[in-house]
């Protein structure tokens, strides 16, 4: 009997136990079936035992029945009963009577029996439906999952209907499988549309890639009625992004998603460039930057077709430019506001370009990693299926690394070039070459000149942060893309992977950057981004130090302050913000020198029309800078540039010490000139008498008093000390000599006083009397004793020679005259204030 004639209904004569177990109890394990058979056997044994017990309990009845049967048999065979009906005839009559009764009963109870049979059939059918109910609910369940975006659950549900074979005789099950296939095809179309959607989060894309891959592995049958597998049909997985048409069914899901998202990335890059060109042209035609920016934001929020929206915007901007040409020309002639708006638009374009790279490159990298993993799984599966010896026979497909090199790298280069041009203009690049103009080549010459010019410091600082972030993203993408270099079959793609026809959107312009054609496009992207950020950060250093120099020069010339804190703050701020500080070491060093030089020039300007107090203030500021903030600045610069600026301390100290030496030397010269006027001895009419008392030529006694010239000289020295101490303190050391400024000033004043007095005494030596010589010798000795702490050795020698000449003129040695030591003690008593101020 064929399998198709077998049945799973126990009441059917063609009931087959194996088929019953296969369809009804397919989920039961072997242990469960074995346990069930044991229970059936135990029930059969129990029935036999009950029959045996029944016979034992009613054995007498069984014996009597057997005797009766034997008796009927004997009576039927006896001769005397041959003319009468036998037992058999009577039994036949009884059978006929029972059949008649049965027929009448069936005739009377036929509806009831038919209903009973129908109920049994329905109950049996319901039992079967309950067992296959989960399979019958699969199509509806799949549609619910698809409507709510739960594609993983839909794929899991579709796996359950695959147990139904295609040649199954149960029409209901075949219909269920057909409807489930329809839902699976719908899920595949939705998943393919998800892969082609640029606004879907990357996590949802990765889930869609996984679900679509699992669905493809289940071999969903095509729908022959709609012919969705025909090439070129929109429902067959063909999507158009800009100028690129991609059939997602020509590649595995991860690679298809990477190609589609790469096409969207290229489209957004081109849109960013066109939008920058459109914005600057509209601003040049008379519109404000706020209106242009708001309109661009509205278009971005609408999320419409990029190509159509950009085209309409270009046409509208062209019409606006034509209608407002004359009006905007008058506005430009009367105001330069449009120039500032153009510069601001360049900053906005830079931020927008960096935003495109920041949002899209990590997204593409995650999809590329998923594609790389899919390639590895496909290669391993092919190796197991075909064997290691035939791996080379696998058909060549596009690799994830191919897509990064051929499709994504040109767009990365374009967006980096665009951001670089918007932020830097066309000059002063790190390589010394002009930066390529990405837009505005057909604009007016005035607009082109403004687009090519560098940005002001404020706008350049904004762009520096954005370019630094762009470089980080490009570096991460380039480093991570190297992990995709090995193909899915384990082969090395090399530095220049083989491209597949139709898989590339363009080729990287290798010759544009003076690099060989064999250069890796990703390396070109990194090099271009590095050059851009180094250039903008060098400009930022120049701008920052220029602003700091102007501020410090203004404060120095106005208030006589050397603002080392401003320079230190500037360097610390650059330390926090620069990402390529090693490449900006020269700019940092020159900038610090510029700030210090401007401060010195400002201090010189401050002192120019002022006196000694201003000079001492300038010297004090220089001393504080040398011993304080300049040391901190040098340490911060060394930390910033990683120790590359080794000569910065020497250069800064040289400028400051040059100003300090000039100011302090001028102060010392003024001291010398001032004390020179205090050393005049005055008239020689007063002289000392022979008795040792001060008197005049007529012998009239004069009151004893401290000599006026000594008082003037010592007062000048004390005044000098007070000036220096007030400005510099008594412990500030001059760096070039290692001596305090106070000591140097007082030593200079003391030497000037002694030199002036000795000169005056030598001039009057010939006209001096003996008593006068003795008096001046005592006064000179007093002066030497008071100032010996500050006098130089040469000046002490000069003073000693002068004193000896005076003693020789007086005719005695020190202490042998009429006054002797008493005169010196008297001078110390009279000038005790000066002795206390200047003595040890």
Automatic annotation (TrEMBL):
Annotated InterPro entries: EXOC2/Sec5 (IPR029175), EXOC2/Sec5_N_dom (IPR039481)
Keyword Protein transport assigned: yes
Low complexity composition-biased segments: 493-511
Domain Exocyst complex component EXOC2/Sec5 N-terminal, first and last residues per copy: 4-299
Region (Disordered): 288-334, 488-515
Domain of life: Eukaryota
Any one GO CC term of the record: exocyst
GO BP terms, alphabetized: exocytosis; Golgi to plasma membrane transport; protein transport
Keywords associated with the record: Exocytosis, Protein transport, Transport
Keyword Metal-binding: no
Family: Belongs to the SEC5 family.
Subunit-level organization: Component of the exocyst complex.
Function: Component of the exocyst complex involved in the docking of exocytic vesicles with fusion sites on the plasma membrane.
Name this polypeptide is given: Exocyst complex component
Species for this entry: Pseudictyota dubia
């Amino acid at each position: 009997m064929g399998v198709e004639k077998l049945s799973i209904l126990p009441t059917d004569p063609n009931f087959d136990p194996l088929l019953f177990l296969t369809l009804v109890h397919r989920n039961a394990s072997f242990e469960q079936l074995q346990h069930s058979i044991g229970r059936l056997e135990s029930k059969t044994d129990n029935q036999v035992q009950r029959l045996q017990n029944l016979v034992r309990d009613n054995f007498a009845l069984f014996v009597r029945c057997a005797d009766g049967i034997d008796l009927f048999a004997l009576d039927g065979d006896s001769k005397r009963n041959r003319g009468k009906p036998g037992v058999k005839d009577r039994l036949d009559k009884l059978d006929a009577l029972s059949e008649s009764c049965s027929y009448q009963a069936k005739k009377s109870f036929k509806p009831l029996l038919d209903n009973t049979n129908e109920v049994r059939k329905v109950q049996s059918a319901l039992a079967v439906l309950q067992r296959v109910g989960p399979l019958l609910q699969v199509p509806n369940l799949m549609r619910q999952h698809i409507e709510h975006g739960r594609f993983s659950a839909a794929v899991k549900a579709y796996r359950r209907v695959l147990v139904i074979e295609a040649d199954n005789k149960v029409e209901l099950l075949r219909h269920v499988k057909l409807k489930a296939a329809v839902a699976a095809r719908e899920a595949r179309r939705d998943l393919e549309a998800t892969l082609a959607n640029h606004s879907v989060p990357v996590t949802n894309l990765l889930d869609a890639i996984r679900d679509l891959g699992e669905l493809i592995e289940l071999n969903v049958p095509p729908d022959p009625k709609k012919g969705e597998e025909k090439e070129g049909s929109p429902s067959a997985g063909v999507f158009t992004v800009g100028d690129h048409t991609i059939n997602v069914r020509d590649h595995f899901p991860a690679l298809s998603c990477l190609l589609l998202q790469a096409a969207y990335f290229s489209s957004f890059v081109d849109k960013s460039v066109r939008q920058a060109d459109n914005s600057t042209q509209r601003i040049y035609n008379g519109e404000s930057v706020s209106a242009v920016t708001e309109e661009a934001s509205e278009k971005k929020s609408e999320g419409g077709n990029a190509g159509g929206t950009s085209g309409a915007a270009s046409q509208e901007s062209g019409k606006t430019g034509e209608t407002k040409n004359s009006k905007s020309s008058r506005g430009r002639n009367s105001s330069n506001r449009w120039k500032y708006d153009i510069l601001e638009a360049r900053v906005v374009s830079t931020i927008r370009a960096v935003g495109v790279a920041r949002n899209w490159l990590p997204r593409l990298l995650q999809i590329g990693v998923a594609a790389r993993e899919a390639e590895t799984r496909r290669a391993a599966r092919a190796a197991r299926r075909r064997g290691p010896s035939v791996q080379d026979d696998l058909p060549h497909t596009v690799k994830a690394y191919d897509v990064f090199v051929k499709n994504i790298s040109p767009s990365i280069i374009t967006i980096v070039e665009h951001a670089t041009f918007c932020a830097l203009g066309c000059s002063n690049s790190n390589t010394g070459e002009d930066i390529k103009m990405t837009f505005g080549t057909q604009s007016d010459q005035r607009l082109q000149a403004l687009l090519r010019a560098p940005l002001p410091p404020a706008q350049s600082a904004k762009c520096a942060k954005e370019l630094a972030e762009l470089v980080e993203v490009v570096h991460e993408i380039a480093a991570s893309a190297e992990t995709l270099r090995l193909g899915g079959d384990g082969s090395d793609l090399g530095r220049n992977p083989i491209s597949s026809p139709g898989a590339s959107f363009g080729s990287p312009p290798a010759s544009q950057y003076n690099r060989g054609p064999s250069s890796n496009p990703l390396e070109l992207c990194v090099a271009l981004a590095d050059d851009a950020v180094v250039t903008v950060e060098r400009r930022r250093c120049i701008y920052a130090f220029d602003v700091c120099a102007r501020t410090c020069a203004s404060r120095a010339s106005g208030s006589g302050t050397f603002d080392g804190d401003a320079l230190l703050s500037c360097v610390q701020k650059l330390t926090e913000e620069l990402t390529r500080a090693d490449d900006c070491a020269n700019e940092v060093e020159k900038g610090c020198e510029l700030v210090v030089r401007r401060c010195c020039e400002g201090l010189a300007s401050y002192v120019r029309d002022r006196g000694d107090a201003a000079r001492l203030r300038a010297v004090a500021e220089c001393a504080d800078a040398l011993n304080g903030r300049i040391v901190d600045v040098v340490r911060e610069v060394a930390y910033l540039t990683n120790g590359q600026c080794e000569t910065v301390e020497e250069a800064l100290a040289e400028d400051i010490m040059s100003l300090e030496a000039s100011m302090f030397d001028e102060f010392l010269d003024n001291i010398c000139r001032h004390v020179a006027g205090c050393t005049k001895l005055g008239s020689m009419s007063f002289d000392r008498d022979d008795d040792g008392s001060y008197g005049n030529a007529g012998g009239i006694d004069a009151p004893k008093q401290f000599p006026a010239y000594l008082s003037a000289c010592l007062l000048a020295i004390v005044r000098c000390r007070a000036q220096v101490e007030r400005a510099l303190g008594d412990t500030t050391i001059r760096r070039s000599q290692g001596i305090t400024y106070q000591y140097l000033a007082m030593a200079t004043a003391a030497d000037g006083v002694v030199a002036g007095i000795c000169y005056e005494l030598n001039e009057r030596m010939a006209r001096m009397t003996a008593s006068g010589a003795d008096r001046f010798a005592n006064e000179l000795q007093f002066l030497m004793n008071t100032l010996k702490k500050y006098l130089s050795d040469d000046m002490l020698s000069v003073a000693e020679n002068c004193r000896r000449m005076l003693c020789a003129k007086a005719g005695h040695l020190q202490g042998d005259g009429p006054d002797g030591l008493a005169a010196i003690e008297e001078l110390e008593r009279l000038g005790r204030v000066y002795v206390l101020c200047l003595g040890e």
